[in-house]
Automatic annotation (TrEMBL):
Chain's gene name: queG
Protein name (database record): Epoxyqueuosine reductase
Annotated family: Belongs to the QueG family.
Annotated residues for binding of tRNA: 220
Enzyme Commission number, as recorded: 1.17.99.6
Source organism: Frigoriflavimonas asaccharolytica
Pfam families per UniProt: Fer4_16 (PF13484), QueG_DUF1730 (PF08331)
Function field: Catalyzes the conversion of epoxyqueuosine (oQ) to queuosine (Q), which is a hypermodified base found in the wobble positions of tRNA(Asp), tRNA(Asn), tRNA(His) and tRNA(Tyr).
């Protein structure tokens, strides 16, 4: 009864702090993910993301990340914008990067949430993860019933599609666990058909080295010629496989002011981006996910689109 009561309290807190979903799994070895992850790496689908080869065991077992871990609390935070940035005479930026860096925004929210939880249910050991460290976020979110993994490898929910961030609290607190939900992609292949670079090689399997998001963010070397005339003006990231997903017609605008685009993003046109300086880049993107690409990376992306 206590496990159930505490799990309910955590979900109520998650809602209070702005999370759209919260689910709980037992901190255990992700046996069904081991072989798929191994094959994905063997096929070099991670491209030049060498860090994906590290900490293989930790990716599959949260007890190696948090000593004495008993529960993985998975959370989803909406980032769907009220209005998209105009693509008219403009380069495109993935919606998740419109505002402030989500790593910091959500981490701060989670710290406050955990502080309140500890005041009410007592002290417990934990670690917070927001798209950081070797955690298979979608696997835990799927196990906890937040959604299912779609053919585009994004986590999808019936109620609100897939435009949300995932985060985890791995803790040594035993809680009542949730159940995985069923897959609702059916025979739909819209995401596979729409991908201009054929990055979706199979149901739920992405060749990261062919993905526009990878090419514009993760890739540090020159963009391969195979991307030529296929990037559809994406300067940072890519939302194509999400934009065409029928479930995203249920996406609702977020209510987090920190995720709203700054004025520069709203007002810039192609010519402004082409003339961007290092100083202006640093000023605009000081606390943005776009700083991950660096000034040199963003300039490289623009030059490739214009070549």
């Amino acid at each position: 009864m206590k496990l159930e009561k505490n799990a309910l309290l955590i979900k109520q807190k998650a809602k209070k702090f702005g999370f759209q979903s919260c689910g709980i799994s037992k901190a255990d070895f992700l046996e069904e993910d081991a072989l798929p992850l191994e094959n994905w790496l063997k096929n070099n689908y991670h491209g030049e993301m060498q860090y994906m080869e590290n900490y293989f065991d930790k990716r599959l077992d949260p007890r190696l990340l948090v000593e004495g871990a008993k529960s993985v609390i998975s959370l989803a935070y909406n980032y769907f914008p009220e209005q998209e940035i105009s693509s008219l005479d403009n380069y495109k930026i993935s919606k998740y990067a419109y505002g402030k860096d989500y790593h910091e925004v959500i981490k701060d929210i989670l710290k406050d949430m955990v502080r309140e939880l500890q005041e009410e249910i007592g002290d417990f050991s934990f670690r917070i993860f927001v798209d950081s460290a070797p955690v298979l976020e979608r696997s835990w979110a799927r196990k906890s019933g937040i959604g299912w993994v779609g053919k585009n490898a994004n986590l999808i929910t019936k109620q609100s599609g897939s435009f949300y961030f995932l985060a985890e609290i791995i803790c040594d607190f035993e809680l009542e666990t949730d159940f995985a939900t069923s897959d609702h992609c059916g025979t739909c292949t819209k995401c596979i058909d729409a991908c201009p670079t054929d990055a979706i090689v199979n149901d739920k399997i992405i060749d990261g080295s062919k993905c526009i998001s990878y090419a514009t963010i993760e890739l540090k070397n020159e963009i391969p010629e195979s991307f030529k005339n296929k990037m559809e003006d994406w300067m940072f990231g890519c939302d194509i496989c999400q934009d065409v997903c029928p479930w995203n017609r249920f996406s609702k605008p977020h209510n987090q002011p920190k995720f709203n685009p700054n004025l520069s993003l709203q007002n810039f046109k192609k010519n402004d981006w082409q003339e961007l300086s290092q100083d202006l880049f640093s000023e605009i993107f000081q606390k943005s996910p776009i700083k991950r690409a660096k000034f040199s990376g963003l300039k490289r992306n623009i030059e490739f689109l214009e070549s």
